[in-house]
Structures are given as C-alpha cells and as structure tokens.
Design brief:
InterPro entries: Anthracycline_SecMetBiosynth (IPR052164), Glyas_Bleomycin-R_OHBP_Dase (IPR029068), Glyoxalase_6 (IPR041581), VOC_core (IPR037523). This protein is α+β, with helices and mostly antiparallel strands. It has four helices and 16 strands. Helix content is about 20%, strand content about 40%.
C-alpha cells in the first residue's frame, strides 16, 4: 500500500502529475489505466482522476519550463512553516506556497539531493481515496544517492523512521507512527527521484498498450519476488512505475 492511512499529518496522501497539456495526459491515463477524469468546469488546469468514483490522482498544468513528472504530496499543518523547516534541514523551495482553488496551500520543495516533492495542507483536497488496489497508487519509493542524508532530512521534517527489510530486499522501509508510508533505495546510476508506483493487473499488457498510446517503455517488464513490474513514460515524458502481483 502507499500508506496505511492516507490522511495523516506527515504522510504522503496524494499523487499528481504535472503536464504541459492536461487534456492530452488525461486521455492517455484514461486509456492506459482506466481512470475517469472529471469534467474540469471552469478550471481546466487541474483535473482529478477517479476510479469507481473515488479520487486516485491529480493531473495538473506544469508551470513554465517545468518538465512533466509525477510528484507525491505530503500532508502538513502549515505549508509556510514546512518550507522554513525544509530549508533549515538542508532542502530548498522550488515553488513558493500557492493558494489553490480549494482554498488550501501547496508548495514544491526539494530535499538535499534536489529531489522534488510537495507539501500540502490538505484544505479542500480529498486525497487518494483508494490506495493499494488495482489501477490505484500503491507505493512511493525514494531513489536517493545518499541514504543517510535522506534519513536525516525526512526524519527531521516529518518524523519518518527508516527500517531495514529482512532478506535480500534492495530497499529500506519508511514508517510514521508504526505505519509504512514508503520505501528508500539507492539511486545507483538513475537520476535521484521519488518514484510513484501504480498497481496494475498485467505488466506485459500495460507495456504493449503504452506504446500504442504514444508513450514509451523505460524498463521492460521484469520480475521481483512478489510482482511483475514495468516502468513507463507518458507522451510528455513523465515516468511511472507499474506493478502487478504474481498470481498465487
């Protein structure tokens, strides 16, 4: 699961893709994952993708010169206070606190490795109402070049704790108040980033479909102990990890 409770202060509670063309991105994800995108009405810069009528992800207009990508939103009490705390802990503010149409506030920050993420006070935002089910957000994983720096930063800012995973797993587990909220792994040769993972039913089918829709397969389908996975990029270049559980 993405986390055991998606509406805890200090926990990731929403995912959003920034796109140069919101309507084209909505069409892509509707066909690829089966999301329904609500009529934007007067505000066509931010769309909400739904599954069975419940919110699962946001599709928003990317600011000028900002590349397409996926971001996690972490729920906080006070966005401006979180900006100050992040800067004290070695992070930076990429996009200052902005008021949303909902009346809430959001900002884009970067951790000490330059990896972007959002802090959001959650006012007027539903958050992800479905997590861990097929065609919904299942996990977020930080791919960092410096695990200790990441542990210190996110621990200081949100109170996250890092736990080693038994066996040969190439990642550690983040928790908040005893609940798993994400993973941490070595970025290796990949650019440091927060990876958003969506649960799917079939990785090979998804890989074939994404190319027919104008996207690309970044990593061909591969197996781990419990899942068959594929990493894709949408037509604008936003990268998304997708995983299907092995059938028992």
């Amino acid at each position: 699961m993405a986390n055991d409770s998606t509406h805890w202060i200090g926990a990731p509670f929403w995912i959003e893709t920034l796109q140069p063309n919101v309507s084209e991105a909505a069409e892509f994800y509707t066909q690829l994952i089966g999301w329904a995108v609500e009529d934007p009405g007067e505000n066509d810069n931010v769309l909400v993708a739904r599954l069975d009528g419940q919110s699962v992800a946001g599709i928003a207009q990317a600011p000028r010169a900002v590349p397409a990508g996926w971001l996690i939103h972490i729920l906080v009490d006070d966005v401006d206070a979180s900006i100050a705390e992040a800067e004290t802990a070695g992070g930076s503010c990429l996009l200052p606190s902005l008021e949303q149409n909902s009346g809430g506030r959001v900002a884009i920050l970067a951790d000490p490795s330059g990896i972007p993420f959002c802090v959001n006070d959650g006012q007027g935002v539903e958050g992800a109402e479905i997590v861990g089910e097929t065609n919904s957000w299942s996990m977020s994983s930080l791919h960092s070049p410096d695990a200790r720096a990441s542990q210190d930063f996110y621990g200081a800012l949100f109170g996250w704790e890092l736990h080693e995973v038994s066996g040969a797993a190439p990642f550690s587990r983040w928790s908040l108040d005893g609940h798993t909220i994400g993973l941490l792994s070595d970025a290796g040769n990949a650019p440091p980033h927060w990876a958003v993972n969506v649960a799917i039913s079939d990785a090979d089918t998804t890989a074939a479909l994404v190319e027919s829709l104008g996207g690309t397969v970044v990593l061909e389908p591969f197996d781990t102990e419990s899942h068959r996975n594929v990493v894709i990029a949408d037509p604008a270049g936003a990268v998304l990890a997708c995983s299907a559980e092995h059938s028992s």
